[in-house]
């Protein structure tokens, strides 16, 4: 089954909504963003979550020391790198990482294997920010997914209306949503539940053979 990450968590209440709805991972943004959260706040939320929930921290051009500090304080399972981190930098890391790459054209995908890591994340390159713009890219680029050695996380403009199409085309390991489960810039309990229910429905269709 495609897993679900609810990103941009700032409050324990929203984190628990995600957990109760069946999310597999939560994301804390430590880069400049309206969803930014302090290490202290994220640590307080993290300690209250079930052990099986993945805790992922989002960074832009952070130093190795900053990444390690956050990993330890917040008990992160992965650091997600949304900046200009090079393949060489990523491969020197001694902590679990996910490199995020912005996609505008199909050939933007070519560099993904160079970053290494267990997982890679693809996001839309449209919009003013490194991520969280609420925009998508052409999922057809990933129909012939060439990155079988890495687990693929799909982000960018996902919501309950389009996540089914996204999973159908890409078959990602995980889908990553933030603005798609918000109302007025704030996490919305009902939207989180609806999004995760939609992902579950797609899983049922795939397993039953209704969705090829």
UniProtKB/TrEMBL annotation:
Highest taxon listed in the record's lineage: Bacteria
Catalytic reaction annotation: N-(5-phospho-beta-D-ribosyl)anthranilate = 1-(2-carboxyphenylamino)-1-deoxy-D-ribulose 5-phosphate
Pathway: Amino-acid biosynthesis; L-tryptophan biosynthesis; L-tryptophan from chorismate: step 3/5
Pfam families according to UniProt: PRAI (PF00697)
Major enzyme class: isomerase
Ranges for domain N-(5'phosphoribosyl) anthranilate isomerase (PRAI): 4-197
UniProt keyword terms in alphabetical order: Amino-acid biosynthesis, Aromatic amino acid biosynthesis, Isomerase, Tryptophan biosynthesis
GO molecular function, one term: phosphoribosylanthranilate isomerase activity
Gene3D superfamilies in alphabetical order: Aldolase class I
Annotated EC: 5.3.1.24
HAMAP family assigned to the protein according to its UniProt record, in alphabetical order: PRAI
Similarity remark: Belongs to the TrpF family.
Name this polypeptide is given: N-(5'-phosphoribosyl)anthranilate isomerase
UniProt organism field: Rossellomorea oryzaecorticis
């Amino acid at each position: 089954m495609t897993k679900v990450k609810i990103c941009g968590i700032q409050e324990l209440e929203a984190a628990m909504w995600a957990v109760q709805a069946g999310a597999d991972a939560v994301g804390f943004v430590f880069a400049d963003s309206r969803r930014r959260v302090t290490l202290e706040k994220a640590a307080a939320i993290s300690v209250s979550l079930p052990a099986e929930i993945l805790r992922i921290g989002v960074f832009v051009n952070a130093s190795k020391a900053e990444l390690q500090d956050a990993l330890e304080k917040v008990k992160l399972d992965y650091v997600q790198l949304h900046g200009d981190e090079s393949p060489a930098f990523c491969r020197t890391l001694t902590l679990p990482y996910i490199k995020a790459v912005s996609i505008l054209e199909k050939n933007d995908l070519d560099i993904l294997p160079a970053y290494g890591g267990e997982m890679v994340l693809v996001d839309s390159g449209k919009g003013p920010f490194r991520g969280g713009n609420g925009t998508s890219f052409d999922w057809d680029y990933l129909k012939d997914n060439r990155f079988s050695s890495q687990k693929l996380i799909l982000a960018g403009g996902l919501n309950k209306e389009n996540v089914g199409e996204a999973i159908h085309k890409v078959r990602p390991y995980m889908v990553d949503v933030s603005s798609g489960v918000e109302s007025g810039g704030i996490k919305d309990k009902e939207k989180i539940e609806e999004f995760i229910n939609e992902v579950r429905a797609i899983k049922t269709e795939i397993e039953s053979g209704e969705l090829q």
